[in-house]
Amino acid sequence: MPKRRLVGPLPRINTRRLSLFLVCLASAAIVITVALSAIVPRSPRLSDYGRKITTNTPTSSTTTSRISETLSKSPLNPFKQASHPPPRQKNDEYGGSSWWVDWTWLSVPFSKLLTADDRALLPPLKERSPIYCYYDATVSKTREEKDAESDLLLTWRRAWWAQGFRPIILSAAEAMENPHHGQVQNLEMDDGLRADLMRWLAWDTMGGGLLAEHTMFPMGPKDDPILSHLRRGQYYGLTSWKGLRSALLAGPGPVVTAAVRAALGSPKLAEAKTVLAALQDDLVRTDDRPPSLAYYSRQVVDKKYGAVAEAAGKSAAQGLQALNKLINAHLHVAWQNTFSRGIEVLKPHPNHTTKMVSEAMGLAESLLACSETPMPGSCPPNRPKCTPCASAPKGMKIATVPYYRNSSNAFAIGVVPHPWTLATLDLLRDTFDIADLRLESRRDPWLTEVTGELLDSSASGDVRVMCLKEAVASDYAEARALWLTAEDPLPMDLEWHFGFSIPKHLHRAAEKPLDRDDPSEDPALEWILLERAKQVIAQVRSTEDTKIRASLEEWNPADTEAWKFARAFQARRAMERDQWEKEEAKYSQGSGTEGGRSAWSRWQDAKDDNG
Predict the structure, then answer these.
(1) Where is this region: Disordered (predicted)?
(2) pTM of the full predicted structure?
(3) What CA–CA distance (Å, rounded) separates 420 from 442?
(4) Which of 10, 54, 82, 277 has the most CB within a 10 Å radius?
């Protein structure tokens, strides 16, 4: 019986079939290579990147993980499965923006790689160390004096908030919660010592930390060593500073409690005028006076600021009003002296974007103006050799620059546009043919220009995005730049960002007409296109506009990510302060009104009264 073959004879492969097979194989390899190169981000030369900017570059394992995640989300992956976005976090939305907080914010360039939606990837919110100030509202004073004290407390809160602290006003309510309150009330002592003990009792109730008088102000750059140390909130003993007496104290809760007990049992209590005087010297550590703190004691005011002392001689209210204006002007001068070269407003595309940056220009003019003060030529008590605003050097000016410099001598204001806004202003029209736009324009034009000074021209979009994110949110850059979005108005609480009241009258500079002698500018058309762009960004226009907007975002992913990050970062900053204001409003002075001002709004910003 003949053997049966399970497999038939293989077909003969001739030369023609072999050539056709190799051609198909080579074509498939080319298609796969091009597809992968399009989704794997191109990295710059390490020598150029290391030479021009220092940032938190991801490790090789992080890069491999990011590429793998990118490939897993790619539509070219035949095994790709739709994934759920991460769950919503608490307080992750405000003012039309939403975000996801993650420590990898400087390792993942594009937020969608983690969020799978439109949420921006933001760094964790820095915890603010509390700083306390005691104010006894039960003391009988005139309405004018209480209002003047309220305004001074507002200036105090604003200055410490801008430096990264959480300023809290304490009252007799916290002192009465202390278990030693009854003992203090039953002892015979000087009225000044009793008031100081009430202050310490309230501080002890809160668990220690920083305790300051309402005339103690931070008057230096945000990265000053002593301010950075105090922001960390780590205190290992009861500390005071030379020449400041009780104006600033620091200590952990158990140490403050022990100090209160020691003071109440001290044999010096009968003669002491302050708690510090009643304590043994070995219980308090005295450090050198920090140069970044300004103390406006009565002795300092009488000696250095005669106009304020003269106003105080007329009435306590007039003296407090004059002192408040003086301190605010000194805070402004200290900020101006930090940036000797002035302010740089970013304008990377000079044609047709004058209206877009006009509000930033108006803000810059206000910041370089002089605040109202009873003594224009004076300096803060901790900086006697400052340059007063009235005699500021000519080098301190406003300049429009095409790129971000990351300079320590100049403050930068950046206006980040959405790709739609930049395209419509650049073309002076709001209708686009996406196919033609992709052929005629380069990708991510705004971010490429803004980071041109820091990065080499070969830098990829993800590197530029991380560069800008660091410029917006890092500790160093945050104090030297303000990033706004072109489609949103100026934030209402910028004074809390800078720490002083900005002169109001110069804000009208943002509305001054554009230079009609410049043929590249069309003020009326720019205004119309900018207003229409705001509607498109807010998604209140047609579905067709929404589709074009999405196409522009896909064509300019780095520009879109920069805009989304800056907008969300600004929104979260506003939300943080808004929530803190509402929380502190509960402890102001209860309900009701006094002196024409609602009691809860005392020592709060008038703009928040409707909040």
Answers:
(1) 49-91, 580-611
(2) 0.82
(3) 14
(4) 277
